[in-house]
Amino acid sequence: MIKLYKNEKGARDRFYDKSGVAKHREWRGLGDTFYDYINWALNVGILAKFVAKNPVRVIKGIIEYRWLGSYLSSLHFVDTCVEGLRGPALKAAHTQLHVIVNGATYYIGEALKGDRRLGDNKYAGKQVLLEQTMAPEIVLGFKNLTPISFETFQGLLGCYMDQQLPTFYIDTIESFGLPSDSCRLSSTAVGVAINDDFPQNGACLLVNNMPCDSSCMNSQLIDRRIKLPKLLTTMPMRWDDERTDEYAVKKLKNALSFIAEHTGEIFDEAHFLSVMEKHNLEVRNEMEMYEYLRTPYTPFGASAGTLFHMFYYAFSGGSYAPILSAQKKCLKIAQRVYRNKTNCFPKTRHRIVFWGGSAAYWFAQPNWMYNCWGILTVAQMFNFEGNVIIPTDSLDNALLGVAKNYEYGIMRRHLTGGYQHMTEFWDIAKQFNCDMVLMNDDITCKGAMGMAGVINDQCKEHPDIHLMWVPNDLFDHRTVSRNEIRRIVNEYMSAVMNEEPLDATLLDFDDYEGW
Amino acid sequence: MKDLKHLIYFENLLQDANNELVQQAVRDGKHALGFTCYFVPEVLLNLPGCFSARLRAPGTGSTDVGTYYMTNKTCPFTRSILERAIEGGYNFLSALISSETCQMMHRGHEHFEMLGLVKYHNPNFFMTMFDAPFECDEDALVHYEQQLRELLLQPLSDTYGIDISDAAILKAIDEHNEICRIITEIGKLRKLENPPITSYEFHVIQLVSECCPQYLIKEKLAETLEELKSRKSDKKPGYRARIVLTGSEVDDPEFTKLLESCGIFVVADRYCYGSIPGREEITVENGEPPLRAVARHYLVTSKCPRFMDISKANERREHLTQLVNDYSADGIIYLQMKFCEFWSYERVLGVHIMNNEKGIPTIGVEKEYTMASAGQLRTRFQAFVESLDIKKIQGGGKS
């Protein structure tokens, strides 16, 4: 039981009760507040540009698609991801988030532009849909084609923006009979399909088995709703064994032929390899950023970095130029911080790694942990997924690299291919100088839960690392609400760590009805 | 009907994974190879010098230890197997052969390695896990065959000196086919309107053929077949509805008994541990390497929902329709082991398609591994049988 705090003043005071609506912007000192405001205005500009570029389709889209309206809260989402940040940390986070807002609006714009439901057009035929968490690399050798990540905007990214969005889709599929213990990522996507809420674009669809069992199965329901030529591009589950490589490459070669056949486009090997070089640059820059993360002198931390990583994995693969320029800018900030030995996160008491699937309906949880308890989240499990350097000496090797990148993909690398991957966090925590690990108990993730006892057993071998289990229901905030997550963290910090909060107004508040 | 001569003997064999025939085979110097999934070809575990034992956890009470390791949010079948393994119930095994076909089962099996299970009793014990494809095309076949060769056969040869030559595989196929012929012939009796066998008896017979060394049980199975051929059925069939049962693991004959108590006769057992698929003969085409034939057989016959290909998914529903027609069934029950991702989606979609598109009365049921929720299940099954009765009275039969 944590003790009661009365009449405290703090960060939560600027919000209306039971919501995420702020009375005013966060005061960070003159310079940082101004910088933050300018970036807010820039993001407003991006949204305005998004509408202005194709107003008819955007308005039709908002009327047609329930999920699109949730992106109106993207400004609020950005605000939550920079809460409590100052100086270089604020600058780095805004740089990363700026690319995400820009990129998300670009790709949603592309999806709407090619949406046959909003008006017949030929552009749809120049798009290739990629299911689940499949990254775009396989399409990038076709100069005239655009990869469209199918499901991400309606699911994962939509849930980040608005915690209320997936519940409708989850209820839809559950009313159809699917048990509520099924993975929310997959069940939400099926709910979207049953509601016919996917845009109707693309010349063809690459179906795949990423990341896990439920996503294999939800494809079978979704397929019934998508009237496009489809190809199964399944990657081996035992990816750690090089004996599975040949099969993985065969699958990708089949995918190349399939795309060419259904779009009439020609695969350009030289172009493909040059894009893969850029993919590698993105990965190398990311690795360099991680080097700074290991030290106390880093501008990276809290939630923005992980989102940036997931975004470039899912959408860029070397093809989205703003990623590289943002990385360069961030690295410059980091070099300056390190040179000057600036502590960008002065409230830090503990450094933590998040492991397992974290609550998508509260992506800014790391910011809250920092502001309330002084726990700096240096990285999440997703940061260590993807990140494969793709050889560019030959097409076969490059395709093997792409296959590995898929196999190392978001939520796949650590949950499949052998138990040793799921327990890598002990080493990672040490490499990043963390004294805590937050184990996300995603209550529908069977691959992770199947390791719970072994992870607990391993605790005694790591007395220097505190392991905190925190449940969540991935997309469904009604099962384990944000406030319930806060309560569990609060209890751990006060009962186990014997600590006082930095800001007592953040301990317990109701934002159940907020975005 | 007159009791089957060997029924009590068979029932006793199912009381324990380490039953008297398993013990006898181990005493004979044979290596016991455990498995749970259809993706692990049973026939390859019956090469000369070893025998297959499809793992069950009969008499499971608490799964506290399994739940500690895997939480209460994972498949209860897997947890029960793990619990039994930790208790020492599978210490007779020489190896556990597994595949990463479903997240929970593969996690459960990984615990054999992580916790060093069985090793104390058999230092040579190993767990091997291979990759199983999601499709059924030529690439998948080559991949599957290669995985079987390198991750199933080779370790058996390296560790226990098992003969994995083509000749040995052919011999295993011949012996496997003999068992298949017996079980299939017994199973076909269920097509009769007044069959000389109950669905419970068939379930017991099928399970002993999977859980006991085949070379030791074959004779009694053949004897039972002969007995059934001349067995007189009761004057009137003792069921109200003929049902095709499909779904995930059903390895407890008591469950079939529960269905029978509700007036259901299970005409076709199309579930994991059932005979459809499972007891089809393996054919080796001219010039085809026997391992290729085995791989092809298991890929083609498997009806696992894990196969994502839409044509394979449609084929599953067509297959069920075929079973309904062949066995004159009144309806279908989809069973899903609690927390099973594969069968949860398959059940939802299957119930919808079979009812609304195929016009076959179908229900979907979630179940625990043990019979803990038998009361609730009984109510569901009774209601289903009543609805089928009403349809018959109204002259429908099929909706």
Question: How would you explain this protein's 3D organization?
Answer:
By secondary structure, chain A is an alpha/beta fold. In chain A, 47% of the residues lie in helices and 8% in strands. Chain A has helices at 30-53, 55-64, 66-69, 74-81, 87-113, 156-161, 165-175, 184-194, 213-222, 245-263, 269-293, 304-316, 321-339, 365-373, 395-407, 425-431, 446-449, 452-459, 482-496, and strands at 127-130, 146-149, 204-207, 230-232, 350-355, 375-380, 436-442, 466-472. Chain A has a 4-stranded parallel sheet, with helices on both faces. Chain A has a 4-stranded parallel sheet with strand order 6-5-7-8. Chain B is of the alpha/beta class. Helix content of chain B is 49%, strand content 12%. Chain B has helices at residues 7-13, 20-27, 64-70, 76-87, 103-114, 138-160, 166-188, 199-211, 214-229, 253-261, 290-301, 310-326, 341-357, 374-393, and strands spanning 31-35, 50-54, 95-99, 126-130, 241-247, 264-271, 331-337, 362-367. At the A-B interface, helix 9, helix 10, helix 17 and helix 18 of A face helix 3, helix 5, helix 6 and helix 13 of B.
What is this structure's SSE topology?
The complex is a heterodimer of chains A (515) and B (399).
Chain A lengths: L29 H24 L1 H10 L1 H4 L4 H8 L5 H27 L13 E4 L15 E4 L6 H6 L3 H11 L8 H11 L9 E4 L5 H10 L7 E3 L12 H19 L5 H25 L10 H13 L4 H19 L10 E6 L9 H9 L1 E6 L14 H13 L17 H7 L4 E7 L3 H4 L2 H8 L6 E7 L9 H15 L19
Parallel strand pairs in A: 1-2, 1-3, 3-4, 5-6, 5-7, 7-8
Helix pairs in contact in A: 1-2, 1-5, 5-12, 5-13, 7-8, 8-9, 10-15, 11-13
Chain B lengths: L6 H7 L6 H8 L3 E5 L14 E5 L9 H7 L5 H12 L7 E5 L3 H12 L11 E5 L7 H23 L5 H23 L10 H13 L2 H16 L11 E7 L5 H9 L2 E8 L18 H12 L8 H17 L4 E7 L3 H17 L4 E6 L6 H20 L6
Parallel strand pairs in B: 1-2, 1-3, 3-4, 5-6, 5-7, 7-8
Short description:
Chain A is an alpha/beta fold. Chain A has helices at 30-53, 55-64, 66-69, 74-81, 87-113, 156-161, 165-175, 184-194, 213-222, 245-263, 269-293, 304-316, 321-339, 365-373, 395-407, 425-431, 446-449, 452-459, 482-496; strands spanning 127-130, 146-149, 204-207, 230-232, 350-355, 375-380, 436-442, 466-472. The model of chain B has no long low-confidence stretch (mean pLDDT 96).
